[in-house]
Amino acid sequence: MSTLILHATFFGQIVIATFQFWRLVNGVAMPHNLSSGFWMSNSFMSWVFKSLHFQGFPKNLALRNMVLLYKYNSSNIVSHEIGVPSPPPSPFSFPSYIHSLFLFTLPLLHNSSALRSILLFLFFFFYFMAPALEAQVPQDQESLPQSNNFLNSLNDATHRSKVTVIGSGNWGSVAAKLIASNTLRLRFFHDEVRMWVYEETLPSGEKLTDVINRTNENVKYLPGIKLGQNVVADPDLENAVRDSNMLVFVTPHQFVEGICKRLVGKIREDAEAISLVKGMEVKMEGPCMISTLISQQLGINCSVLMGANIANEIAVEKFSEATVGYRNNREVAERWVQLFYTPYFIVTAAQDVEGVELCGTLKNVVAIAAGFVDGLEMGNNTKAAIMRLGLREMKAFSKMLFPSVKDSTFFESCGVADLITTCLGGRNRKVSEAYARNGGKRSFDELEAEMLQGQKLQGVSTASEVYEVLSHRGWLELFPLFSTVHEICSGLLPPSAIVEYSEKLPRSF
Ligand SMILES: NC(=O)C1=CN([C@@H]2O[C@H](COP(=O)(O)OP(=O)(O)OC[C@H]3O[C@@H](n4cnc5c(N)ncnc54)[C@H](O)[C@@H]3O)[C@@H](O)[C@H]2O)C=CC1
Ligand SMILES: O=C(CO)COP(=O)(O)O
Fold it and tell me: What are the GO BP annotations of this UniProt entry (predicted)?
């Protein structure tokens, strides 16, 4: 019996090692679950093998080997779960695999010196070559999180997901570019990415959609950047979503409800949505996040993607991070991560839709405050103080609205990182700086039209929406920064009031 197990073990190890070597040489990324299974079985088989046949072999060493492989394996699983790249090739991965194989099979072959020499040669070859081969595996494929869904759809062209980007402003165009680079590369997405364009006529008399399709550039909202030949601009909303099961919403928040109304009954039943929109609506019943609005109006699940993502920087492929917020289904979150993830755009997932979305929404109000500080030339310390107080109000407001919001979310890209980048380099900051410089005499609408040429601010209307919630719930005194920003934007207070509010600062959070 033990001989049978021995031979089965030996045979199994050869099959696995051959497969591993083949995939490394051919640059084939191994589906993660399969890889885990192989590692586990290898450790187990080695252990059985050792226990049965090498009585003199120190068992605790065998166990240690197993534990190391298991540790490597589990760190890999954890990192895949949250959507971060695999750790770099581990000393316990490929070489130790071959190492254990040869270490424990060589004595078995002691009668055949020729075979032993060949095996020894292979052992050293694998041992020294493996790290180099491992490095050749395309990292962007290997490091992507993979799920069973992914495994199922990998070889099934009929189930390829089709993506439509609803919106084509500054961030909408960059999102389409990111997505288009991935749909070309990953076989489980259709190559083509539809991008719905709110049609307008350019000064040249041409339609924006025609120019985007002719030049592959959004000349109005993202000039100078090629979107990818597989991006197709479409001015017909219904046509743009007809065949798609992955809908990416990325318009200014004030337009989302109108768009959803037009989409009712027009989308696929199996559609999933993600919102990149930073903002909220206030209804009779109370505040309504944009992802909830989309879910309720269209009857579909909606995740969110937020982060420190100034679009023009990502357009030229400067490194940044983002957070996908998802509700229940991790596999859905992984699919969205796969759609956006590139080596320069690192996406992780957090199970906290409201937390992620509120971070992206509320930091725009703080950025307006930071712009006032810049316009009044109050310096860096004051700006840092405003950012800190703003973050504190963001957290308190989010948790009071949704007790499920997690503290950890504020440390993701969607939290403190987005707050910082928007307060340093965003459009909200820029226009509110101009507002303060003009002593509040020129309206935000006028400045927005002049400075942003069609792009939209979200912070001013969000400040007003937040103010409505605060007054309705009797929370105004708890949120002096948020309420002061709105009062300045609506002309009730001068911009200098931004640093006067702190006298009324509550001690409650
Ligand atoms: N631009 C950025 O750096 C980032 C923006 N975001 C968020 O993404 C969302 C979309 O912003 P952007 O793509 O930058 O847009 P944008 O502000 O650059 O452009 C405005 C867009 O709204 C469209 N539009 C105008 N009137 C419309 C109407 N009546 N109905 C529908 N669409 C209309 C315009 O055609 C244009 O595509 C916002 O919530 C923003 O906060 C998030 C991260 C970064
Ligand atoms: O959300 C943003 C960066 O993450 C962009 O902010 P602005 O709209 O202020 O440019």
Answer: carbohydrate metabolic process; glycerol-3-phosphate catabolic process
8 Å CB contact between 71 and 79: no
Ligand 2 centroid – CA 361 distance (Å): 10
Catalytic entry in 50, 162, 177, 363: 363
Is 395 an annotated catalytic residue?
A: no
Q: Please tell me what DSSP assigns to residue 415.
A: I
Task: For domain 157-351, give the fold.
Answer: Rossmann fold (3.40.50)
Instruction: Indicate the top mutation candidate among 165, 166, 168, 170 to test ligand 1's pocket, ranked by most ligand atoms within 8 A of CB.
Output: 170
CA pair distance 343, 355, nearest whole angstrom: 25
Instruction: Tell me if 255 CB under 6 Å of ligand 1.
Output: yes
pLDDT 10s digits, 337-380: 999 999 999 999 999 999 999 999 999 999 999 999 999 999 99
In DSSP terms, 164 is beta-bridged to: 194, 247
CATH superfamily entry for domain 356-504: N-(1-d-carboxylethyl)-l-norvaline Dehydrogenase; domain 2 (1.10.1040.10)
Q: Is 427 in the pocket of ligand 2 (CB under 6 A)?
A: yes
Distance CA 437, CA 434 (A): 5
